[in-house]
Amino acid sequence: MRRYYSSHLLDFETFAKGLDPTLAGDDDVDGWLAKLFNASFLPGRQPDYGEKVPAAFADRHLAFSKAGRRRPPRAWRCLRGWHRFAPGRSRRPLLQAVWKAIAADLCLRGHKLMAAPALLGVGPYLRPHELMKIQPEDLPPPPARGASGHLSLVICPQNRGITTKTGAMGDIAALDCKWQLEPTPLWSALAGAPQGKPVWAFTCPELARKFKETRSQLGAPAPPDMMRHSGPSIDGALQLRPLDEVRKRGRWVSRKSVVRYETAARLSKAWHDLPLATRTRCEALDARLEELLLRGASRAAGGTERR
Questions:
Q1: Is the Cβ–Cβ distance between 49 and 25 less than 8 Å?
Q2: Please, how many CA atoms are within 13 Å of residue 64, restricted to the half-sphere of its CB?
Q3: pLDDT by residue (tens digit) across 204-218?
Q4: Phi then psi for 254, rounded to 5 degrees?
Q5: Could you write out the three-class secondary structure of the chain?
Q6: Number of neighbouring beta carbons within 10 Å of residue 17
Q7: Alpha-carbon span 240 to 182, nearest angstrom
Q8: Is 177 left (phi over 0), alpha (psi -120 to 50) or beta?
Q9: What is the Cα–Cα distance from 226 to 90, expressed in whole angstroms?
Q10: φ and ψ at 153, to 5 degrees?
Q11: How far apart are CA 178 and CA 94, in angstroms?
């Protein structure tokens, strides 16, 4: 997380010309943060940047955190105004056919294990860091034959001290999406990875690069963080889950955070905004996905993607 914050902290330190918050007064720190927010707002930057800067700042200087005694009130007021005049834009969701097509395209290009995140990440509404930290012990065995139930996934296990963005631990998400193909052929390969290490032999930036290559093949934008927004949009549009269940499954604290996922038109528009050739290609790959996953499943278990 600190690596993620480092660029935002550097932005402030550069803008404030080396101001040392431990020596400067609250008014000086407050003033420089407010100036940075104004300078970022005027060119049209989104307010989510303004949220990350003080978070990075408070992570480095704990006196400015919620538990600390130092406050930058003018900066927070600027941030509220920034949200009011430039409402944040949520990422556009992708229809289930697009994610299946991405998985199928990765299989065709010889990256079968990289296809698994495209299938695993959407249904449980995973954030990229939650997805990439999955270890074999987080993948319980499939239900016994004849038994009811679904494959499930443990998110941010308690025994490893990993928390979600909202501070929760040990959430379990059933892979029960009626619209999503369960990645059963790959399940054994992932569960058989070395214990105590992530099941993926690739990093999030490497996965993002492969997704970007798939974008050039399909003509559909597909960064890994769009999984988080696609799953609840699909469930909401198809009315497969009530909004409160979507909220709990996505580990959102506020109901306000998920109201947008009730709008079926949002998902439909995102699909029809794609070029016709892209939609046709996605539908064709979607139809082939199960065949591609089953083909050579034993070879996938050999870890062809592992370094």
A1: no
A2: 22
A3: 889 888 888 887 788
A4: -100, 140
A5: CHHHHHHHHHHHHHHCCCCCCCCCCHHHHHHHHHHHHHHHHCCCCCHHHHHHHHHHHHHHCHHHCCCCCCCCHHHHHHHHHHHHHCCCCCCCCCCHHHHHHHHHHHHHCCCHHHHHHHHHCCCCCCCHHHHHCCCHHHCCCCCCCCCCCCCEEEECCHHHCCCCCCCCCCEEEECCCCCCCCCHHHHHHHHCCCCCCCCCCCCHHHHHHHHHHHHHHHCCCCCHHHHHHHHHHHHHHCCCCCHHHHHHHCCCCCHHHHHHHHCHHHHHHHHHCCCHHHHHHHHHHHHHHHHHHHCCHHHHCCCCCCC
A6: 7
A7: 17
A8: beta
A9: 10
A10: -140, 130
A11: 16
Inter-axis angle of helices 227-237 and 264-272, nearest 10:
120
Residues 123-142 as b or e (16 or more Cβ within 10 Å = b): bbbbbbbbbbbbbeebbeeb
Residue 36 bridge partners (DSSP): none
Using an 8 Å Cβ cutoff, are 62 and 107 in contact?
no
pTM, to two decimals: 0.66
Per-residue pLDDT of 139-176, as tens digits, reads: 877 666 655 567 788 888 878 877 776 677 778 888 88
Bridge partner list, 76: none
- Report how far residue 158's alpha carbon sits from residue 162's, in angstroms, rounded to the nearest whole number: 7
How many of the other CB atoms lie within 10 Å of CB of 19? 15
